[in-house]
């Protein structure tokens, strides 16, 4: 499988199974696909920053994407940079560490 195909399958999964990102004013971009190792890096930004469910969305993507796209072994999620950068990345990182989010599973 080519890296382009793996990227296309990753993008398709996120677009079709996590529409809340775009529906709520956020966005995602696939920053890197390592075909050999199966590692994928996804950046999220826009309205995702500081959103109360962003940490749960990020955790769900990290967990579910490898289950849905067989060739993926690891998913790294990071805050997007540039003009569409997340507004409050430190708050989102803090929220990811909160125990309240440990067992929550978003409905996607």
From TrEMBL:
One of its GO terms (molecular function) is iron ion binding. Gene3D superfamilies: Fe-S cluster assembly (FSCA). Residues 19-75 form the NIF system FeS cluster assembly NifU C-terminal domain. Residues 96-108 have a biased composition (Acidic residues). Residues 80-108 are annotated as: Disordered. InterPro entries: FSCA_dom_sf (IPR034904), NIF_FeS_clus_asmbl_NifU_C (IPR001075). This is Fe-S cluster biogenesis protein NfuA, 4Fe-4S-binding domain. It comes from Halogeometricum limi.
